[in-house]
Amino acid sequence: MFNSRVGTSATLLQSLTRRTIPRQARPFLFPPSTRLAPPHLRRRSFASSAARPNTKTDWRAMAENDITQYLRQTHDRVFEHNCRWAADCKAKDPDYFVKLSAGQTPEYLWIGCSDSRIPAEQITGLEPGDAFVHRNIANLVCNTDLNVMSVITYAVEHLKVKHIVVCGHYGCGGVKAAMTPKDLGLLNPWLRNIRDVYRLHEQELDAIADDDARYNRLVELNVYEQCRNVVKSASVQQSFAKNKFPVVHGWVFGFNDGLLKDLKVDFEGMLKDIQKIYNLTES
Ligand SMILES: [Zn+2]
Catalysed reaction per UniProt (predicted)? Predict the structure, then answer.
């Protein structure tokens, strides 16, 4: 069923197999702290920080003192950015935080992957207060996961969100790991949910000869199935019967062009379909 030639996500495996950082005598050069730079030269983006070691080899090349310094810098940098962000917000609108403190009425519930490259607000232009966000590996909605089910219930019943978006992404390490015949320990039961998606669509997926195309299609089918799981929830079914919202959407983000693809999930058709078996609208 699965193709063993498809490699497990390097990122995922690195995080699974990262070992204690070894001692090394060779020093590592760091960029000067942004705190020392004049304001007009300070970096505006955390992601643009230079000289960040990103391979196992880089870590092994670092002396213990350098590692300590690097950890302090990467910690402090977040607070520097936070101070600048808060000051910018206040400069644009002196009442910004007064309004933010008043409460939230988000229009969207975003269920996305934990992948660090897909920040929900930044890729959609949404502002703080616009989206209630839940993220986990491979954007899964499992009915035994108290976390995601609590998020959905709260978002629908209390925040009255109008849209629920399940957003997957091409190149998802979780999906790729699930396509790999390996024992990943604690991740096995989580990734089993994606293997179940493969089983449900085995015929279609097995008919795709190209490895990348089959992987991309599994990403999309996983989003479809997680949308279906959202629709199966009592809160969504009952709210839609009463209010005609929320509507459930399935999207996929692409790293190649930074664009979101709308899978155009037929929400009402899906709702009608699942209610034959999963109808929870009667109390
Ligand atoms: Zn992912």
Answer: hydrogencarbonate + H(+) = CO2 + H2O
Q: Which residues are catalytic?
A: 113, 115, 117, 169, 172
Distance separating alpha carbons of residues 53 and 41, to the nearest angstrom: 22
Final residue before a domain boundary, out of 71, 92, 113 = 92
Expressed as residue numbers, the domain containing 201 is 104-278
User: Does 158 belong to an annotated binding site?
Assistant: no
Q: What is the pTM of this model?
A: 0.80
Q: Are residues 53 and 137 in the same domain?
A: no
| One domain for residues 131 and 248 | yes
The answer to whether residue 11 is domain-embedded is: no
In this prediction, residue 66 carries a pLDDT of: 85
pLDDT category at 52 given cuts 50, 70, 90 is: low
In this model, does residue 105 exceed pLDDT 90? Answer: yes
Known binder of ligand: residue 113? Answer: yes
128 plus 204 within the same structural domain: yes
Q: Is the pLDDT of residue 45 over 80?
A: no
